[in-house]
Amino acid sequence: MKHPLYLQLLARLKQDLQVLPDKPDETPRNTLDCLWALAAGQPLAISQVRDAVIDDLDLEAQATLNALVDKRLAGTPLSHLTGRQDFMGLVLKSSEAALVPRRETEILGRAAIGKLQGLDVEAPWVVDLCTGCGNLALAMAVAAPQARVWGSDLSEEAVALARENTEFVGRPDVSFYAGDLVVPFDNEEFLGRVDLLTCNPPYISSAKVEQMPEEISGHEPHMAFDGGPFGIKIIQRLIQDAPRLLRPGGWLLFEVGLGQGEPMKQRLERNDAFDQVEVFVDDHGDVRALAARRRR
């Protein structure tokens, strides 16, 4: 039998919680379970709370829970309250320092891991740009323990969070640097040596960033979304700069926004630096990630 407070708050969340399409796991029940666990002193991600044994709350913890539900309904992201976020089977630390990892980015993650595992290289070099909290870099590192993985982000705060996550998931050997796109790797150590280059770039047009829901625009870093006037400024730079880092036969993979897939595919196919282009779609058939192979 559920606690009366649980049933009361669940009814409130069912009535008032706005679940964003890119966070489908954050149902009213999952949200309440995570906040209940947090009020009980256990910061857990959605994947963890289902199996957790959580005690009843004393009066002080009940007051904390009510305050947490208020914050969630006011627009604070669930992962910013719990400090935890699921991504591709990993539980990561999350904060306002970086974009909250989305389910849609797992399309890029699965595609990248597939390419990585198919490489005929004993210890492939992997670089993840616009790394945010390090979710994609660390997912690849865990899936391919033999890989050497680096990441970078323009935000020093995001890089600090990514470094925390290296310890949190048990891959302290993954290195993160602060810098603009390929700049941290534009040197003799990396030029022409990278086997796999990934990126989840900002791809929302500048005018639309402020129009996003308060949960996004009011709490997550704008630089993680703002892709310039047409949303493709960073993607264009990525396509231009990536060939310098990639070895012949190496792969570039990146996420795109809705409607950007076909134009970016055509751009890659016209680029002499690449000799093969692949697309990866979501459940609706929309292109959400692209892969391009450096010409051999």
Topology, element by element:
Layout (H helix, E strand, L loop, with lengths): L3 H13 L11 H12 L6 H4 L9 H15 L4 H5 L1 E4 L2 E4 L11 H14 L6 E5 L5 H9 L4 E6 L2 H13 L6 E4 L15 E6 L6 H4 L4 H4 L15 H13 E10 L5 H10 L3 E8 L5 E8 L2
Parallel strand pairs: 3-4, 3-6, 4-5, 6-7
Antiparallel strand pairs: 1-2, 7-9, 8-9
Description:
There is one protein chain. The longest helix is centred in the first third of the chain and has 15 residues. The protein is α/β, with parallel strands linked by helices and 296 residues long. The strands form two sheets. The chain has a seven-stranded mixed β-sheet with strand order 5-4-3-6-7-9-8, sandwiched between helices. 39% of the residues lie in helices and 19% in strands. The protein has two domains: 79 residues, no CATH class; 190 residues, Rossmann fold (3-Layer(aba) Sandwich), CATH 3.40.50.150. Helix 1 crosses helix 2, helix 2 packs across helix 4 and helix 6 runs parallel beside helix 7. The model has no long low-confidence stretch (mean pLDDT 93). It contains twelve helices and nine strands.
